[in-house]
Structures are given as C-alpha cells and as structure tokens.
C-alpha cells in the first residue's frame, strides 16, 4: 500500500465554475409538471385515494398518514419506480396523467442518478459504473468519507408544502459494508457488514428516537 492512499481517497472533481453542472439534467418543464400532478393527487377527494391507503411498508404503492410520537402532520405517497414496467401498473390511476408524467420524470431522474454515481466513483478513485448494479448507503461503503446531508425545511402555518423525493435503494438482501478497495492498514473499517433489510428494520425507530441510524453498525476500536 502506498502513502498516497493512506492520506485518503482522491479529491472529488471540482465543478464549482461549471454553470451547467446540474442545470438541464431534468427539464424545467417536466419539473413543473411533476409538481403539479403531485399537488393534484393530494387534492383528490378521499374516496379516490382510499384504495391505496396502507401502513404496510412492503406495498409497492401506498399513501399513509404519519403516526409518529412527535407528529409531522403530513400525508405521504410512496411507490417504487424502476424498472418502470414492473411498478407503473401499481401507481395511482388518478389524476389520469399521473403515470405518464411521473414515468417520464422517473426516467430523467434515473439518468441524473447514474451520472451522479459515476461522479462519486470518480471522487473515490473507483471505476465508472461501480455502484450501478447495487446501490448502497455511501457513508458505509466509503468508510465514512461521504455523509448524507440533513434534510431540514421551514414550514408555514398557512401554506402546504409538497416535496418530491427520490431514494436509491439496493435489494433487501444486498450486503453493505466498507469497500475493500478503500481499506488499508491506516484506514480500518469503521462499520460492520449488514444487509439492507436489517438497516430498514431499524431505520425508522432510530430516526424517530433522534438516534443516528448508522451508530448501531459502528465498530469500536
């Protein structure tokens, strides 16, 4: 192992002067359309949404109302997107253009995600496309080099806010742990290996308790 690796992974590519770094990756027109159709969905009468209401986290498409101890006062629609042909038939039938708009949006977002994953590979000194087969929590795989941003927003007492979030998830049986290519005698693993299923089973409990969800997987030296 060389001393260069012991100083840490290569720096991430600097794109701060590139005005078009993110602009145009997903069309502005489509961004407006998907936000509009999301608002239309939540404004539907209850009778049009009751068929997909469920508290079962394994359902492919469901709307639920949070029951947290510290209540967030929100309705949430969740559904899988890729591969589209395996999931789109479970999406809401109303509004009638929901599947068309969200389907187009999902395709463009997937292209954006693939591009971002390749940039992450470049920054970690890995081959392009390394993460495309199995998408995993990067803080674990990068052995602490990458960290998720904390999502924080200010709510308005009179105005509702609609957020469209995209999550990249591996298969339930995917084993997640520090990448061996990033480990060395001076860069020991910070986390133990676990499956994505194990992580999901404890994530909600930990986050509601304000406990960092990765703490239970840390290795103490």
UniProtKB/TrEMBL annotation:
Taxonomy of the source species: Eukaryota, Viridiplantae, Streptophyta, Embryophyta, Tracheophyta
Protein name (record): Hyoscyamine 6-dioxygenase
Keywords annotated in UniProt: Dioxygenase, Iron, Metal-binding, Oxidoreductase, Vitamin C
Organism from which the protein derives: Morella rubra (Chinese bayberry)
Recorded superkingdom: Eukaryota
Single Gene Ontology MF annotation: L-ascorbic acid binding
InterPro entries for the chain: DIOX_N, IPNS-like_FE2OG_OXY, IPNS-like_sf, Plant_2OG-oxidoreductases
Magnesium listed as a keyword: no
Record domain Isopenicillin N synthase-like Fe(2+) 2OG dioxygenase: where: 138-170
Ranges for domain Non-haem dioxygenase N-terminal: 24-93
